[in-house]
Amino acid sequence: MFKKVLIANRGEIALRVHRACQEMGIRTVAVHSTADATAMHVRLADESVCIGPPAARDSYLNVAAILSAASITGAEAIHPGYGFLSENASFAEMVEAHGFTFIGPSPEHIRMMGDKIAAKQAMKSLNVPLVPGSDGELASLEEAREVAERIKYPVLIKAAAGGGGRGMKVAHSAEELEEAWRVARTEAKAAFGNDAVYMEKYLDRPRHIELQVLADTHGEVVHFGERDCSLQRRHQKLVEEAGSPALTAAERNALGAQVTRGLSQLGYRNAGTLEFLWQDGQFAFIEMNTRLQVEHPVTEMVCGIDLVKEQLRVAAGEKLGYGQEDITFSGHAIECRITAEDPESFAPSPGRVNTYHAPGGLGVRVDSALYSGYAVPPHYDSLVAKLVVHGKTRAEAIGRMRRALSEMVVDGIKTTLPLHQRIMEDAQFQAGDYTIHWLERFVGRRD
Prior knowledge:
single chain; Rossmann fold; D-amino Acid Aminotransferase, Chain A, domain 1; 8-stranded antiparallel beta sheet; 5-stranded parallel beta sheet; globular
């Protein structure tokens, strides 16, 4: 096992990785920008190195500075967390080329799954179901028209290198297609430096279902069940559940068996998440994230397995030591992503936290790097806390989340706590009756 790991990230995920390392007897190195000099992960790590000014491109995306920090501190491995460089195949290659272990999948698989077209082609070869659409990149507007006529409107134009809803446009008719094509390519070029787009059938009432997987370097691949991430605003997840209120155990097991069999054929390693749209009992693959997900805690709560520790063990070359039959699911878990944003306008709300109080009690977990007096910087993602609860049933989990939300205090900045309280009180949510389009309507609704 590693003796020292550098954590190439910040905020709650850097703290999450640090805690797993500490429990395993692994020393940690925190890297930070000048804006994060007093951050909690910096305070708690065994060592810390400043790698640049506040802008992410000059610090958390500064590959040379991160590798230098690993070298001067004697770190053996680098954990990228999520976001930033976590799905950058070139970074993973450079980590390994400089003699460090990258705690994640191989550069080849990161590159394959980072290209949405290549990922779909790989899944198609493994007989994983796909959303109807183009076979690959659309070469021209004329080809886009032909595909749209074949799969029928409405259709979705998506960036091949995209994510987070950027480079994604819906066309409900032939008249709308040209504008959707033009805008999607422009956004894709601006956001990812690549204007390649492809097309999928636009589903009107799907759920967003994802499957958590883990593979060691000895051929064992397992899954840890599904998460329902359908509660999204502008393609950003706000609430996640494990498992999904829409799926049966038989559907979960069938999908899991198909996916783990396919990833075994690919020779995949470490953690990953396959994302699907689910409608009318049918799954359709949309993408794979080759990293730890923000919402991994809900899976940990129902499985009782620490996914970060498993990542570390796999990266060190250890066998999982268990098979699919050894993984059990207990109860229900819900996660609310608390962000430093106005709960109605979603305008960013950085600033000093005057008072911070985390809820507690049976089945309550808070992943956060906040503390009273901490100044939330304006330079990074607005996520400040993940409030996670577990209950024997979904109804108990909802009741526990309502109680935990009422206890949580973040004073001095605006947060989305009031929005999450509204969601938990809603009868449709309580009934599990929602799709990926539900939250957009709910946010603007005032009953």
